[in-house]
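User: Sequence in, structure out. Go.
Assistant: Echoing your sequence, followed by the structure tokens.
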Amino acid sequence: MALGLARVRLGWLRGQAGRTVQTRGLLGGRRSAKTDRLDARWVARLLAKEMLPESWIPPEQSQQLQDRTRLRKTLAEDRRRRGQRLHAFLMHEGWPCSRARC
């Protein structure tokens, strides 16, 4: 987790869906090695002291639209990939295939 702006999922800790954390200013200068375990402890302490600002969570309708958009993109990529595989197979087998028809 970065010390700068980080997205932290701590729903299990305080019932929050997500928080955006700006820890660099709160942490000060660090002279020891940075590890995820130390970052997790630091974020948990800040959360316990209620020093973390809440992040904006989009409404359910917006999240559903984002999910559908991701699904559409994935399906389009799968379709393109299958078309390319079909084209490669036909070319390998010696079938003439124009790129527009495969």
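User: And one key feature?
Assistant: Residues 2 and 96 are 53 Å apart (CA to CA).
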